[in-house]
Amino acid sequence: MKYTVSIEIALPRETVVQLLADPAHLPKWLRGLVLHEPLSGEHGQLGTKSRVVMQMGRRKIECTETITRREPADLREIPKTSIVHFDREIVGEGMWSAVRDRLTEAGPETTLWESENEYRFSGFLMKLVGLLMPSAFRKQSQQHMQDFKAFAEQGKDVREATD
């Protein structure tokens, strides 16, 4: 299963990538995050492996995330014509996923965040979930982007949400 979602954020690209790259901000916008801890390497750096635990309703999902691309390595003073890439591979029970994020300048004070997502499932239950509920994965990805936008632009924290 593959899909792409995108969102415009009313902030300069350098500000957006700094917020995305800072692990201290993850719980503020990544709905359901219980734990995100590096197992090897430094958070967000190429090759880093992290243990990620997410709460999805009554179910806890644990997986391993590996950073497969981060360009440029230095996120300060990024040339205007450059595209910022954050790619990661996520492996959990019955699931493999690749997420390829691209951040570009949509204007002087606007950033376009495009996220290409690919999922592969193994095991009967996960294959069934992928077959019967593909829109749930796209919806969740879009929700994470909307939550990040609300955090970045307005300081909203998903942990304080009443919905």
UniProtKB/TrEMBL annotation:
Domain of life, per lineage: Bacteria
Signal peptide residue numbers: none
Pfam families listed in its UniProt record = Polyketide_cyc2
- Recorded protein name is SRPBCC family protein
Query: Origin organism of this chain?
Result: Streptomyces caledonius
**Classification of source organism:** Bacteria, Bacillati, Actinomycetota, Actinomycetes, Kitasatosporales
